[in-house]
Amino acid sequence: MNDPVKELSGLQVLYIRTNLPAEGGSFGKRGWSQATLAKHLCVSQPVIFRMEKKGPELNRGPETILIAQLAEKHGIVVPSNEDLERETELSDSAA
Questions:
Q1: At what angle are helices 10-19 and 45-53 packed, to 10 degrees?
Q2: Are 11 and 85 within 8 A, CB to CB?
Q3: CA proximity to 7, closest of 49, 62, 72
Q4: What integer pLDDT is reported at residue 73 of this predicted model?
Q5: pLDDT (tens digit, 9 = 90+) per residue, 34-57?
Q6: How many angstroms separate the CA atoms of 39 and 37, rounded?
Q7: Burial 64-95 (b: 16+ CB within 10 A, else e)
């Protein structure tokens, strides 16, 4: 990871968290809870909640860098913020 200043939108943080492999190798399950991710990053769960709540707005800081590193470690290809916004709009209009 060459870029020391990493920015992830709230949508990207949510995407990464929900695509991390389940702890303990639970078959067929994916995703971490906000509390599990917070514990892994040594922050409180509300920090993760606030990051995700920003939606398309960008997050910056040490937690963002660590989340990006987790995605890289687990081979998660993170879509662009624009793609995630479009996907969210489509799912909202279908509901």
A1: 120
A2: yes
A3: 62
A4: 94
A5: 999 999 999 999 999 999 999 999
A6: 5
A7: bbbbbebbeeeebebeebeebeeeeeeeeeee
